[in-house]
Amino acid sequence: MSTSTKLPLFEPLDPAGIGDLLTADERAVRDTVRQLCAERIAPYVADWFESGAIDDVRGLAKELGTLGVLGMHLEGYGCAGMSATEYGLACLELEATDSGIRSLVSVQGSLAMFAIWRWGSKDQKNEWLPRMAAGDAIGCFGLTEPDIGSDPGNMRSRARRDGSDWVLDARKMWITNGTVADVAVVWAMTDEGVRGFVVPTDTPGFSAPEIKHKMSLRASVTSELVLDGVRLPESAVLPEVIGLKGPLSCLNEARYGIVWGAMGAARSSIEAALSYANERVQFGKPISAFQLTQQKLVDMNLEYTKGVLLALHLGRRKDAGTLLPEQVSLGKLNNVREALDICRTARTILGANGISLEYPVIRHMNNLESVLTYEGTVEMHTLVVGQAMTGHEAFR
């Protein structure tokens, strides 16, 4: 055995050397998205969070479209056609900047665009997907209701046939991008079962008031959707699916991105805590030189490393066509929960500075409180995995 091989340097933010498992194309995607975030988003996102508004959200969407990250894992119609792993790495870098920015991209690509791409007609795809991929049109996804979250089968939104048209009455809540959207994919109960509708937001009877007073995902547009007697032609219906299979397939796509994205928030918090610990001097030495601080840093990095390895494994399975919905639930359950714990621990290392927006930690921590419960709560994903393990449904 040769002893002359030069070993690589230890990377504090990649202690296991996971980057070596990535292809050249995957590293290029990661680095390109990281650069855009560093130049276009990171310098401003704390101010956006504090003010509760993104400056020029349409301009940002256009830049993200130009980069190719909107619907980047979809084929055709102006989409980049990249791999699931490349999409995951993009989500990690976006959420390392802010969960709200990753949400904008996820809702656009994995919910609204995916619904049209997977279940839409040829005309619907041609009309919307190229514009959405370019960032020229923004989409939203209306499933959650004011009184219906984890049980979408009991949604109260209704659509009925009236001659050759459909008339849609719906209330949807906590809808990312809603106020700025050009098109909404809205799910409603019909006599045939749950159906999806592609609704231009300038249709009479549609409105999307923005939800204010949030303490989480503040650098993100969150809205209520109100549809009062919205009349739509038959061509507005997603023709290829009836039932909950439609919206749940879209949620599975978005949850996959969260598995990766949560690790971005975790990495950013570890990086901030490590930098601060090396600079903050107490009792004559940096606090990083104390055993208890090192234990926190190491424990955070252990969970981060395991989370990224899990995300990468699931990405490889998705690219191979073998990823199960229950495995996405496993990843979402673990990675968001661990990322939130990492952020909370990082906050303690920063002490009082941990609550300041001069550092990213409290922003990530607050954001992850939303990510923890949207697109499936801890309880729901626990029961999904539990059912897969035991064969017994425990939802009721």
From TrEMBL:
Residue ranges annotated for the Acyl-CoA dehydrogenase/oxidase N-terminal domain, each copy included: 23-136
Keyword Transit peptide: yes
Protein name: Acyl-CoA dehydrogenase family protein
Cofactor: FAD
Organism: Nocardioides furvisabuli
Acyl-CoA dehydrogenase/oxidase C-terminal domain location: 246-389
Signal peptide: none
Keyword Flavoprotein: yes
Domain Acyl-CoA oxidase/dehydrogenase middle: 140-230
Pfam families assigned to the protein according to its UniProt record, in alphabetical order: Acyl-CoA_dh_1, Acyl-CoA_dh_M, Acyl-CoA_dh_N
SUPFAM superfamilies reported in the protein's UniProt record: Acyl-CoA dehydrogenase C-terminal domain-like, Acyl-CoA dehydrogenase NM domain-like
Alphabetized UniProt keyword annotations: FAD, Flavoprotein, Oxidoreductase, Transit peptide
Classification via Gene3D superfamilies: Acyl-CoA dehydrogenase/oxidase, N-terminal domain, Butyryl-CoA Dehydrogenase, subunit A, domain 2, Butyryl-CoA Dehydrogenase, subunit A, domain 3
Assigned protein family: Belongs to the acyl-CoA dehydrogenase family.
